[in-house]
Amino acid sequence: MRTPTGWTRHGLSTPEAMAAAVQVATRYAAVDTGAIEGLYSTNRGFTRTIAEQTATWQEALRQHGPHVERSINVALNGYEMVLDLATGRRSPSAAVWAMSRSAWKSGSPILVGCPDSPASPPSSRCSSA
Q: How far apart are the C-alpha atoms of 115 and 96, rounded to whole Å?
């Protein structure tokens, strides 16, 4: 018996439904990553709006500022690389190269360890010493 959401009694019914579920879960993790690291604050409503890409998700993201969008995108890229490694879609050397290149281009706090970067607001906790 199928349900309208793509689920069956035995689990996800199609590879597409599984891929969509993984994308939503990855967006949930990406949104909360920056909040956990103290780069911005969030709440359940904001996280869900972005993760599930509801009708107002782009406006909600815009209201939080460009540093939040950059942080979420950096986290998404990192999670995608990890998923690619775990599933064999990317070799370890290709993933390391992509992460290094991404960190260099964005100054990512998640990939290079300092929240005082273009991906975070100037009031971050990283000193310039």
A: 21
Contacts of 51 (CB under 8 A, 6+ apart): 24, 25, 27, 28, 31
Calculate ∠ Cα 18-74-72, nearest 5°: 70
Cα(39)–Cα(115) distance, integer angstroms? 7
Confidence (pTM): 0.65
- Are the C-beta atoms of residues 6 and 15 closer than 8 Å to each other? no
Q: What is the pLDDT of residues 79-102, one digit of tens each?
A: 888 888 888 887 777 666 666 665
DSSP 6: S
pLDDT more than 90, % of the chain: 40
How distant is the alpha carbon of residue 121 from its chain centre?
Answer: 18
Query: With 0-12 CB in 10 A as exposed, 13-18 as middle and 19+ as buried, what is 31?
Result: buried
